[in-house]
TrEMBL record:
Species annotation: Sulfurimonas aquatica
Organism lineage: Bacteria, Pseudomonadati, Campylobacterota, Epsilonproteobacteria, Campylobacterales
Gene3D superfamilies: TT1751-like domain
Signal peptide: 1-21
InterPro entries documented for this protein: TT1751-like_sf
Protein known as: DUF302 domain-containing protein
Statement: the UniProt record of this protein carries the keyword Signal: yes
UniProt keyword annotations, A-Z: Signal
Length: 306
């Protein structure tokens, strides 16, 4: 009987561990308002991370929708200055997390500030990779938050919803021997021109190959590697109504690269299916705006790669 009981307890422990969700969720008392997104940004940039963007969203929410549900709603993106290089050199698709999202939000009638980030296991699931380098980045990011906010409560979100669709949407354009530099310029010009008609904005762009090559001093496996931060205000506004923790996915990082040993340009982004699954989005309005964004973005990429 004792063996049976021990086995059941062990099995329940395993199930409990497996049932953990996809997001790190921090909450800390911020009634005074002294903990700001800028303070959080500086904690990251002083401890091994580089800044992507720090985008305050209440202004845009109020301007476009005439209201906001939050005292604080900021989309912060960062990437580890050293480990991210190792990651993208090993896994080309890892550029969709360079930079990665850190959601920061506090409800209008709330004293608690929240921070959301993806777990290393979730990023590995999306990339189809192992967790070795991702765990190093995660450890460094968690250390930043824990050191800055030692009194914060740290939880893992509820188990994600099942999702069978591809978690990274990716397209390729064969160069057929054409000069890659000319094709890169034309490709990215068409990509950027495609954003505005569908309501996408591009708050930042990064030539990541400059960091991989240390401005030309070391070799890189890529002829070029660029990342775009892409945001659609209507999406994050509507999703935040019920699942503000999904801000860990925003803005979406889109990768565009060409490997030196390949005759093609690859473009891709984390599909909205990640939002639906990891943040457990079941609200119809939020679901609909996400699926429209997926359809619109795919139409842009199909158009420029055909």
């Amino acid at each position: 009987m004792k063996k049976i009981v021990l086995f059941v307890v062990a099995l329940m422990s395993v199930v409990s561990l497996q049932a953990q969700g996809d997001l790190h969720l921090f909450e800390v008392n911020n009634k005074s308002g002294k903990i700001t997104p800028l303070i959080i940004e500086e904690a990251f940039t002083k401890n091994g991370f580089s800044l992507g963007i720090n985008s305050e969203m209440n202004g845009p929410f109020t301007k476009q929708f005439q209201q906001t549900d939050f005292k604080v709603f900021t989309l912060l993106t960062v990437y580890h200055t050293e480990f991210s290089k190792d990651l993208v050199n090993k896994y080309p698709q890892a550029g969709v997390f360079i930079p990665m999202g850190v959601g920061i939000y506090q409800g209008a009638n709330e004293d608690t500030l929240h921070i959301s980030m993806l777990t290393a296991e979730t990023q590995a699931k999306i990339l189809g990779s192992d967790t070795v380098i991702l765990k190093k980045i995660e450890k460094a990011a968690l250390k930043v938050v824990n050191n800055l906010l030692p009194n914060a409560k740290h939880n893992i979100s509820k188990d994600s919803l099942k999702e069978s669709r591809n978690l990274v949407t990716q397209y390729e354009m064969d160069l057929d021997g054409e000069d890659w530099a000319d094709m890169r310029e034309e490709f990215e010009m068409n990509l950027e021109a495609g954003f505005e008609p569908f309501g996408f904005v591009m708050p930042s762009f990064m030539d990541y190959n400059e960091e991989l090559t240390q401005e030309g001093s070391v070799d890189s496996p890529y002829d070029f590697y660029d990342t775009y931060s892409i945001c659609k205000l209507k999406v994050i506004y509507n999703v935040a109504k019920t699942r503000p923790e999904a801000s860990a996915f925003a803005p979406c990082t889109t990768m565009v690269y060409k490997k030196k040993d390949e005759d093609k340009i690859v473009v891709g982004f984390p599909a909205v299916y990640n939002w639906l699954s990891s943040a457990r989005i079941e609200d119809k309005n939020a679901h609909d705006v996400l699926m429209k964004a997926q359809k619109d973005f795919e139409s842009i990429l199909k158009d420029i790669t055909e």
